[in-house]
Amino acid sequence: MRAGVIRSLLWKETRQIGRNRTAMLTATMLPFVILFLAPIQLLVAMHFGGGPGMDQLRDSPLPGFADVTDPRQLLVQFFYPMMLVIGGLLLPSLTTAYAIIAERERRSLELLISLPVTVAEILAAKLLAVLAVTAVIGLPYVAIVLTLLLVLGIAGPATIPALLAPFIAAVACSTGISLLLTLLARDFRTANNLSGAFIVPALVLTVGTLGAVGGTARTYVLAALLLALGGVATLVALKWVSVERYLE
Amino acid sequence: MDVADTAIAFDGASKRYRNGTLALREVTWSIPVGARACLLGPNGSGKTTSIRLLQGALAPTTGWVSLLGQEVNGPHYADARRQCGIVPQSAGMYADFTTAEYLELARRLYGRGDVATAIEAFGLAEHRDKRLAQLSGGFQRRVVVAAALLSEPAVLLLDEPTVGLDPVAAREVHNYLRAAMKGRTTLLCTHNLAEAEALCDDVIILRSGEVLLHEPLARLRERERPRTRLIARQGAQELAQAVRMHGHGAEVVDDAVIAFVDARSAAPALLRALLSDGIDVYECRPLPATLEELFLEAVGR
After folding, report:
1. At what angle do helices A218-236 and A80-105 cross, to 10 degrees?
2. Which residues of chain A lie closer than 8 angstroms to B97, CB-CB?
3. Strand B256-259's sheet: what is its strand order?
4. Is the pLDDT of residue B1 over 60?
5. CB spacing of A111 vs B88 below 8 angstroms
6. DSSP secondary-structure letter at B5?
7. How many CA atoms lie within 13 A of A201 on its CB side?
8. pLDDT in tens, B10-58
9. Which one of A155, B65, B106, B142 is CB 3.0 to 4.6 Å from B147, fit for a cystine?
């Protein structure tokens, strides 16, 4: 793969994604709610509110979290990792589907491959564009929430990588899964539905892993599992599904 | 043929799609640098598959394919590919890219070329900032041809370049192509036999993924049965009978007779004989077979 070609294709992809109002609106609003609004609300409720919810969590802890005596620590060991994973899974799925399916639906892939590029370069540029859009939209929200955790003394510096790891892994996992589902799907709607349906097993995996693995390692184990899942999906997409079916 | 002189080569190349369709069956053919060849064949004969193999979008199942001496998807293929302009078959257009932006993308990917010159040369100045999807079919095709020629490529691959265009737009595209093909190796895939005849020197006929025929158009013409069209005042039936009496084959087509004689060597003597027989022949002209007839003969229909 040639870096110059990927750069040129990246220029094309980011322009096209940026010009799609629906894709941009969904890609902006969804993470705003999941990665910013909901975590801030939870933070305010737990840190400043106290109340019956806090007492209930202290008296009967969540399964697998008996070692967490301070309910505020549940924020950094359970609630925030879960929100970051949901946000990380949802954020790239729509843009991946748009970047690939739109090319297929308008039959412009034929136009693109008439230029001196390879299919691998096209896919690499699309995935990089998705990651770039995800980073630009998602990371500022995550950064604000993590800064608040530090400022309010809820989390120490060691917690930051422990929370970032599952978020980044979820983004990578979602990109790989979305690539596979998009190549399999007939149209944009099917690709979105399939990606949406994938959230449920991913959440089961997230809650299960966070509960089953004790201590501070839980988010890193979750990140490793998500990365492995995304890697397998990407491998299957490129090796067995492939873009060739679009050209047959 | 020396590898250095070969622009395009297929050597025992087959392509089987994932759904089991065998689109190409161990085809072997090549065209030299500077040749203008057309790839003819009915639907599903493997024309577009051949182009996609050459552009590296698909990989052959067996055998190999080369472009300008470089095996497709081999280590130096990328350099050869940048020497090749491709006009795809009725591709979809980007609704979110303007003419200038698409040509800029092509310039970046080829690593050379001048967008402003291409826009000027292809009469696209008025449409420079219009979205591609807003252009008429003829202008869209012009943009695609402009992108293919932007980098002054050595090889042109044209996949049905005028399909779906009205006659006026098709003629405009032909004019651009005729100028662009000068001095360039060209492979033209087409259904349009008049287009092939007007633009190419060599013919490759594919059927069911196999090469049925590959030879210069002129040689193909030499193989055709010579024919002369005659019309007489007495009518076609009487004229045909007279022609047969002089030992030549004849066929009645509407009000004329197609005599199977060579116009240059045998028709004058036949004409004299018919006139002396009292048959008032008032039209006599050679009848070259159209490429369509040669094609249909070759594919056995």
Report:
1. 10
2. 12, 15-16
3. B250-253, B256-259, B228-232, B281-286
4. no
5. yes
6. G
7. 10
8. 999 999 988 888 999 999 999 999 999 999 888 888 998 999 999 988 8
9. B106
Please tell me which of the candidates B86, B94, B108 has its beta carbon nearest to residue A114.
B86
**pLDDT exceeds cutoff 70 at A194:** yes
A238 close to B (CB below 8 A)? no
Q: Is the pLDDT of residue B239 over 90?
A: yes
Tokens of B108: 């970046």
What pLDDT, on a 0 to 100 scale, did the predictor assign at position B279? 93
Report, as an integer, the average pLDDT of B80-98: 88
Locate the chain B residue with the closest alpha carbon to A16.
B96
pLDDT in tens, A197-209: 888 888 899 988 9
Q: Which residues of B touch A114 (CB under 8 A)?
A: 55, 86-88, 91, 144, 147-148
Token representation of residue B124: 């696209």
Q: Do B89 and A110 touch (CB under 8 A)?
A: yes
Say how many C-beta atoms besides its own lie within 10 A of residue B100's C-beta.
Answer: 18
pTM value surpassing 0.90: no
Kindly determine whether residue A118 and residue B73, on different chains, have CB atoms separated by under 8 Å: yes
The Cα of A114 is separated from the nearest Cα of chain B by a number of Å equal to 5
